[in-house]
Batch of 3 targets.
Target 1
Amino acid sequence: MRIAAIAAALTLFTGSAAAEPLLNDELGVSFPNSGACTSSIQFNQFQPLSDRHLTDFSHRMLCAAGTGITFFVYESTSEGGPYSLIWTGGGTHGATSLNDSPAVGLNMLDGNWYLVGAQTAATPSSCTCYGSTDPSLTYETMSWGNMTGAGQTSGALSTTFTPSVSALVFNQIVDTTTAIFAPTAVLATPPTADEGDPTVVLDGSISSDIDGAVVGWSFDCDDSDGVTVSFTGSDSDTCTYLDDDGTYTATLTVGDNTGNTDQTTATVTITNLPPTATAACSIGTCIIDEGDSLDFICSAVDPSATDVASMSYTWDFGDGPVAGGTQTLVFTDDELLLAECVADDGDGGTDDDEIEVLVNNVAPTISLTGPNTGAIGDTLSFDAVAAEPGDDTLTWALASGAPPTMTLTPSGNVATIEWLLTADDELASPIAFSVEVTDDDGGFDSGTHVVSVTLTGGDDDDSAGDDDDATDDDDATDDDDATDDDDSAIGDDDDSAISDDDDDDDSAGDDDDSAPCFDVFYEDGDGDGQGGTIEQVADSVAEFSDTPGTDGWTYGSYPAFTSGAFTPLTWNGSSSQYEGPEGFATPFLDASGGHPGVDTFDWAVRAWTSDIDGTIQIDMTFWDRDTSCGDGASVRVIKNGFPEFEYLNIPSAAFNSTLELPIAVGDDVDFIIDPKFDTGCDDTQFEVVISELLDEVVDCSAPDGYADNTLDCDDTDPTIALAAPEVCDGLDNDCDGNIDDACADPIPGAVVITEIMKNPFAVTDNVGEYFELHNPGAYAINLADWVIFDDGSDSHTIVGDVYVLGGGYVTMCRVDDPAQNGGLTCAYEYTGSVQMGNGDDEVVLGYLTADPADEIARVVYTDTTFPDPNGESINLSPLFLNEVDNDNGANWCRASSIFGAGDSGTPGDPNDPC
């Protein structure tokens, strides 16, 4: 069967019968490393034994002198075939010479072709067959002489052959009209895309055909969709997948110019992207009063609409996660907490966002009710009710100066006042008394009630002043006796300065005298017309210093629970802390906390010495900075050696507490970090702010230095008050409870360039150039450390504070001298390091760097698309004061208002209309 097949191939070569393709599985004769060629058709079967293709299998026939080689026969089973390929090799050979190579270079065939036979013109014994399985002998370097064997010679193949249909018909025969080589389908690097934009391009442009050309491509985006192959003339196609993560199998089928095809696949991966979570409060600022409820809304955006629809949310308010994107909480006590929301897209993508929630303490408010009149001997009863929105514990007290016969009985948020009226009360009538209530967070209120006490009333039979008793007018002390109306200094209508109803000049309770006033006025220490109730006098963090005694602060240690001496700690500059001699340099105190001793029970003590007389409020923030071991950090407050406050086992999250103390100049207040018993991990945050409670007076009108309100949050600075402009300076300038409102890193458009004087006329450019900035927001912006630059080499870093108030304008000048610059009033001089071209140039303002990524404001002007005046500024229309519209030269015009030395512009003021 095999000989017949080869014979058929030989017949085809001679132009006789049609060829029968040769199949490798029909060839069973092995090709030894060496041996005699035993027949005129020698089968050389490699593949079943060694799986060696022409890419790594060399062969040769060593024939005797004068032997002629007729042809070789090769076969492919994978190139759309099988096919037989026949070469002739004419001529004879010299003694022991290697047979000629075929007319074409066999080494250029691809690895799917096999040598299956050869025929010689001489007897079989004239030739010896050799083979090699050396994988290093690939077709790029194959030669006929690279094998071992006695008496062989070498001669490298000299002709490079690229198979093609036209080449195969020269001096050789192909046994079929079908093209020899099928095309090779190749997809470029398997594409990937992100959900939200799940569009990829399948690229088949690098597919090839070795004997012709690829002329058709068919793309199937997903092998599961049953798309029928349909060839197109485009070597790429665009596939759009579901808007969600997943994997798909894409298929490319290519066809060549003779109808052969090839197919390949690639995995397309659509990658999940995490969501972006946003935590928000229903009222925006997340600042509420205790007792109020607050809605928390967790939302998220995601590139995949599918993920958005199935997004799940949780909130954590410090006590574990709670499922649900909207939560409503009622806060019953003042606190500062971080609320975290987490968005989960269900595909492994999550994101979280945090917001700070400030719950303000609300002072209780008193409602005091009871009678307004009474007579000597009566017992009056009053009810004081305190409205307290939180869960604070209330402390009740009668204000100083209350009548001595008045008692107060507290019960929760209610107090009962009992008052036995006496003659002394009548003498002082009308009497105003006050009841005070304080919550355990320092919130305070007082209620005042006025009572008029009269002589009449009481028991007629028992009263010492009763007309019928032993002391009445008819008895020994009556009008006729020594103590009667004419003689008694006490009861005489004519003589008594105390009880004379008609004496307008002397009696404090005289009917004609004015009733006392009970309006409350508050100390206005800075003269801004707004009173305050509290004034900060010390800050343990802000005033931390390497010099003991600065601002009244000293740093040391005490032996715990004893009255041992205060031992100063030593300053360590490299660690920026005070240290002791014990292990780990303890006790130590840094700016915001510290650690007690680890070798002994030594307290770490931050001491403050008062320089004021009055009452102070101490606001403390503390938490355990290391919960990894130990029995819990603790803190204490001691004044002049007496304990005033302690908190054992403080929490690991920030905790706030407030304490009020009377204080005198020279008093020492110690803020102590307590080791408790296990000292190893007692690293403690302990921050303290001390404020003085300001004076209040009751009068008919405000005395000098007092106001009728408590709107001031800093009674030492007249620029800090309610409705003052908020400036990004670390202070609560507008007294709204928030420091540096909206002072996050500025974004493009936070300030806008609204006016440019590029070519002054009244003065020279080098002194008269300026540009103007406008802040369209509500809060002031500080330009300190911002950079003025252009797209060339101009650059200047702003030194010092330059504030642009909300809604305001500032002028940035090249020279800040009105006598030189044409009459400009400047907010800042940027000197000659930045110059503006009269034709084309840029004015750019960057946040902290001259990097385009940090640009806040930019104008690129030209002398063709923008106005190009001389002696007039170019002026952005007031209708377009934003960072987008100021890029359009059509929105700019020449300034018309004249200033200073005669040039036109509105530096520092709103612009002229265009």
Target 2
Amino acid sequence: MTAIDRTIYRRVKRSYTTKELIEAYTPTEEERHFVETMTRSGQQQLNLMLWIKLFPCLGYFPGVDEIPTAIVIHVRKALSLPEEFFPVYDNQRTLYRHHQTVREYYQILPYGKEARRVAIRIILRAVRTMDNPADLINAAIDELVKQRYEMPAFSTLEYLVGRIRALVYGRIFRKVKTLISPETQQIFETLLDAQTPLHRSYFSLLKLTAQSPTLSHLKAWQDRLTWFLQLGSMELFVSDIPPALIKHFAAEARALDASELNDYTPAKRWTLLACLIKETQMGTRDDLIEMFLKRIASAHVKAKEALQRVREEQQKNTEQLLAVLTNLVETAMEDCDQDDATAGKHLREVLVKQGGHVELLQKCQTVTASLGDQYQPFMWQFYTSHRKALFQLVRSLPIHSATQDQSLMDALEYVLTQENRRSLTLSDTLDLSFASEAWQHLVIIKDEKRTQLARRHLEVCVFSAVASELKAGDLYVDGSERFADYRTQLLPWDTCQPMVSEYCQEIGIPSDASTFVTRLQGELRSVAEQVDTAFPSNKSVEITDKGEPVLKRLKATAIPASRIALQEALRQLMPDRSVLSVLWDTDQKVHWTRRFGPISGSDPKIANPEERYVTMSFAYGTNMGAAQLAKHMGGVITAHEITFTNHRHATLEKLDAAKADLINRYHQYDLPKKWGDENIAAADGTKLDLYENNLLSSYHIRYGSYGGIAYHVVSSLYIALYSHFLSCGMWEGNFLIDALIGNTSTIHPKIIHSDTQGQSTNIFALSYLLGIDLMPRIRHWKDLNFYHPSKQTVYQHIDSLFKDTIDWDLLEKHWTDLMQAALSVRAGKLQPSTLLRKLSHESRKNRLYQAFRELGRVIRTIFLLRYISDIPMREQITETTNIAERYNQFCQWIRFAAAGLLAENDPEEMQKQVRYTDIVANALMLQNVADLTEALEQLEQRGYPVKSEDVAHLSAYMTEHLQRFGDYTLKGQPASPETLAGNTGHS
């Protein structure tokens, strides 16, 4: 059974606010005229008008006795009918005639056989991409509404979904069962048997998470991959299962233990195991590649540090060599009257006295190396300890080139054949065009007789290039997910071509390459000319002799006394609340916990599920954890109950849906709209401390400790729209567009502000192609290049800003590549973060990288020109990014427990905990806005002079009245039960 409140099926509410009655149930003049022409009886006019007002709100006709009294009274007053009139029918035929009249009025078709076929068809299509019954019911409702059908009874939709889901899944399970051989069946059953020495099943090993990339962990994970490969490929078994369902079945299996899986039928049990093994095989490969990348990156970092140490250590050698040189010059000057033989003998004596020519030459070479930026010679010493493990790892991965250039793959195959060689040089020759000049100079040894390769440096060079091209997508790995060939996820151009015109019209960009380039070129030229013309009168910016723009700091405005007084007056009226009680109260009004439930999608089979979900959200959102919260609740709930609920009833998708419910209710209030613009949002990240023994944990230079990044996108209305947990090494802005595409709330920003980490040329380019206006606050922005629209263009005042020219021919040539990528992202075939992560690494081979970089240069130059000339825009950027930073501080206040340490090693649990904190934060903001709205109304009723400009500077991040600590109780009565359900406006 699926709870109706977990779907979008509309129901008659128990109570209605005055605002809701006025907006939704007040008859219009057209509706009055229609009803009067259809019937003269006052009773029948009331009946018909009620159906006319109820049907668009519900989509179906409720029972006459189910119509709320509040609606009846409101409609009756609007029609000026006597109070004794209530909805009633003496004849059922009149009721049916009224229903048909309303259908004709709204041009709605009754639910019948054709509507049932429509619902079945959309459910069959949806069941291949989603599993939750509530989601399937919602898909059917959306399609029925789109095709203007009357809604059937909820039980009808519930039956259809249950029946179709059972048929489709049963067919899948039976098909998989026929494909699995008896030997594989036995292997699956063995996985679920408890092993005597371990006292646990091998099934539990499938759910382990990767740790930090130490040598021991690297070897352990390689052994894990070997074990998985021995289980065999699961592709044959799951080839007919849609990818979305494979992930769902794997998640369902991961949430269970061995004994619970044994309770399933063999067909379902084996299907879930096959999906879990397939996903875990891919995940293990991905983890190994991440370990490989981190080991190579670590070698680069340590080599650079070694170079710096050598520079510092070579100070004494430098002084010695300068002394030798001075001595040589002085000796030569003294022997200027001597013959060459005598002078040479004296010079040789000086060299011998200082250590000899061999030692002095070595010191010269060391000093020379330390003077440049060539750190590559130092990498071997940091690579050699992991050499054997890295060779085994690379051999275990099916690596392929994504381009026609095979030079790196040829070099890799050659290096693998030389693993056991001990000689320092190799007499062979290789195409090293993939390597930088620094590497080539180090690897290739030339003398008068022959050319050789330095074996050690060659190994490090090739493995470094492999790591770089795996990141850039020029190499890919079969059987991987994060490092698969992302180009296969792009829609074919034949599929894209018919969509281009409509898409470009929607976004507002030209739909052909030539016009696209011409408009961009014209916009860049126009903005540059405007900035150049207005530059003499622009007193906020200067350009130095070096061509560097310098912006003058904007003066801060004084805070008026009325604003401080209003804030103090409001503090006196804000009721004291505990964080836990706020979560409970908001759920009573918004019902955001309806989004949680068993992964199977059925109704929760736990006692008091709402209480359990609220408690779980508080435990993880505040970082208190299950054990500590259970102690503070006096035995009302156990730690096991909290962790069980988190693992079995909460997924990332469910958490995002719960958060969206809170956002949508928040958005109904008028007060936040006085604080900002719903079309504007800001992105920012904040560091969370992690255990070092974690694959995602990295050392963050800026913060000076290990951890990860909680990345948030926050509306200028203060509410958090999106969060993601990142490793410190990831570029935050790569996930910015994921946030906008994945946002399911009613707030859809089009202008995005961020900090330096939220932008790059590629992010500017993709944002432009998706109709997003990226406006970041960039640190050291003056070091970025401005690009001329053409080589012939010269500006009178700002010409020194420009360092290069846009390659318009390149943009026009690769326009189809740009549109193909944008349409693939829009269609959901390719995650923006996946594309941007690949494009964030420079590639000479990737034409998509080159096209995105060039487009990004255009868009970023236009933005930078506007940034230096538009003071209001700079003020807006600063103000909105400050909101995101304040949200991070608000989250730190909420995550008060365990000193902010995220005590998790499971990547999915890390993602969930960040989202739990968002739910707590959004619930607190929702309650704050409700309380502020009520307090402002009280002040106005008392005659307090409330100024709109002072209200605009209030905030949803108030905490003085909130209680975080103490003994926690759940079902406390809210201070104002009507607040959240009441008026959401403030005049």
Target 3
Amino acid sequence: MKPRINPLNMKKKIYLFFTTHWDREWYQPFQEFRFRLVEMVDQLLLLFKESPDLPPFIFDGQYIVLDDYLEIRPHNRDRLLKLIREKKIVLGPWYTMPDEIIISGESLIRNLEKGIKSSIRLGSVNRCGYVCDMFGHNSQMPQIFKLCGLDSALLWRGVPLDRIKYEFLWQAADGTMILTHAFSMQKGYGSTWLEVVSDFKQYGREIEPAEAVKKMLNVIREREEASPAGSVLLQMGIDHCSLDREVYEFLDYFNSSNKEYEIVFSRMETFFDEYPDCSKLMKVKDELRTPCGKGQKNYLIPHVGSSRIDQKQKNSYCESLLCSFAEPYSLFCTIENSKERFCYKPFIEKSWEYLMKNHAHDSICGCSVDQVHKDMEYRFDQARLIAELIVEEVFKRLNRSNIKTIIPYYGIKRIRFYNGAGRDYNGPIDFSIDFIQNPEQTAHRIAAAADLPVKTENNIFRKDGIYFHHEEFYAFAVKRIDGEEVPFQLLSIEKNRSEIKIIKGGIVEQYPVERYNISCQVHIPSFGYSDLFIIPGENVKINRDTLFNDSSSFENEYIKVEVTANGTLTIRNKETQKTYCSCLEFLITADIGDGYIFHKPVNGMMYSSKNCLRSVSIKQDGPLKAVLELKYEIRCPIGFDYNYSSQPSPQMADEEILVDVILHKGEKQVEFKARVINRIEQFRLQVLFPTEINSNTYFIMTPFDVAERDIFHEKDYEHNEPYPDYGIGGQLVFIRDNKDTAALLLKGLPEAGVISKEDRPLAITLMRSTNRTAFTSGEKTGLLEGEQVFEFAFSIHDYRESNAALVYDSIFFNNKPKYNQKDFSAMTSENDIFAASSEKSYIVNNSDFIITAVKEIDGNRFIIRGFNPSDQAVAVELQVNIPFSRAYISDLLSERKIKDIEVKENGISFKAGAKKIINIVFHY
């Protein structure tokens, strides 16, 4: 292709935009970076005041820096807004610059939605998908960008520039393509600054024009050579650096003195809008996760998925709570209680705001200083508290009844279960029942205070004893709405709990409560609820059946689990006869890395849990649920002395790992809850499940996709960093061949995959304990001292299990159905309560379509969003039992209609193409 020439002066256009890469918090806490931000923006405002014709300045693709600045300088709001409306300052498209893979797909969309809409409201938005410093890029990013109105992307890490040039067509998993530019692999998004002006600015020198021109020409010519069209895009800016008049004056000097090139000051998207021809560009599909190549510096930094793992777990919990329960059920509750019209939306938005502030890549990746992660704890708490409160309140409203309740915790109890997934739930659930202590005494006290009669002869819960009354329990039965009794297993009892009940128009009441934790099988329709009833009984019912064969093995209809002599598990799929040996092996490896990188030192050692099993205990024993507790003690050095001896510490300690191995009746998975009593430092803890499944690829859930990755990599020696043992993903990783499928379901554990070994073990990094943080001499909280808890499950099927079925397994594992308790008066009959109860599904989905969001947009619209995880198109039929008048497929901002959908009796149907993300807007 011929270089683009300006016909007026025959100079070639070189596109350049001004920016700064602004990590909101990283090697300094937020408040310190904000102090520098205020200085930088103050200087920028002064520059624009003195020279109104200065070119645009782009705020690092983020919106949040504006809010951060205006909290300190509110009096400058009008000056900033004027510059934004004049397109002199450009915001967005992101709210905060997030990590792309650790957080969920819904978090990515919420982040873009808030950034784009907030920027547009002020008058200027960056229409380029700017992801300059993320540690790898997910396979659906081009589709997400395109559906948010962004037609191009700028990025750096993860691009295989050993085989492609700076511009290429990045193709999403569904085939969506966007024109993409990769920054220089040597110095990335800051290369122009670093190569041209850094030598002057870093050491307080004035820019020497002749020397700087030579540097600029070298940069331009390197970019020309690496561009398929000979086009050049430069970024003038680097981490947390201000721009000053001297830089602008040098660039003016370059334009006036150079006869070959003209620097055109522009916005990011101008380069893409004027790009000569895209038709012959190389297409690069799916994820961009190539490690740093030979002679390059674009490090992928592959181990951030296991840094500060406690914060990844909190993030995953908050995302699940908001998307699966707070948003959909607040919508259902609003529609069910249309007369009240209490608006939950501002609370939900505030919860998301706290959460998204933690999604900045150096924050959620766990590679910042201790104070940053301390600040994150507060924001996680606020996001969680708001979401939990909304869930509690909407469940109360959805579990109300016209039957008056006089004495709480007294009569028949209705337990209403809520399913936060787009598929019916049929399976086990553990739940609690609260019985008030001394019920008759409490009832008479409350009734006397309220001047109400009370009868205690009917429908009251009384205790009954077993074995000569050495232990007494409340006697009750569990029934469905049709009156049929449901078998249950009593798990545990908690006595002397203090519960409060907030009464509208009254004051807080406090009750002494006994909590009974039980397990039973429940059916709950998709995005709906169903009821079980706790009925007073005559006798205590304890079923003595068991899933145990002996003290170290148990089984259900599908799975048999045995503890072996060396402390690992043998797990057999009874349907396919496939046996998985040496499962649940823990590995502790010395790690002198930091928040970014796992690094095993030359003299570092690895310790296995094999032959370290100290005890086996039966914790739960019954017909519906069996729990075996395994206690491991792995003797290890307490740390590694890297600075002096480069040897493991001579002092040893026992790293204690307590594992609950959980098997439910009717389930095709074994669940694990591992508690690590951490007494050592500087290590990585993994857990392995060898599969011996003959495949060279595995699958991992990433935002809106089930991505396929290679297990074995050739020519690792050609990279500056090795391929990681495995990568970063979401809630699910699995491997399959033509006979079997083995999967791990993960709760807030994003670093997982299949290790490149012959037995192809599914593996998880549970945690890394590090004391190195960026630009410090070492800090403490990254060591994760004390107790850490991890939850995961090993799920086994035959080869026919679909991607969608496995994804829904992971969704249910992460989002167990929730429940709440409604108490009726002892004077209310069983038949009346059954008649006032129901089962309901708000959204019926019988297809392999993964619903990821159900939420209100405004007072007249709501959306259902989801994706097809398959390589084949699927026909989708949704029965939407919420009043609505019309529906259409839109962009991800719910603003641009793409296609109308025909509505038939509250049902809609459409085809979801392979790997497509579908956003459906409903008007009601």
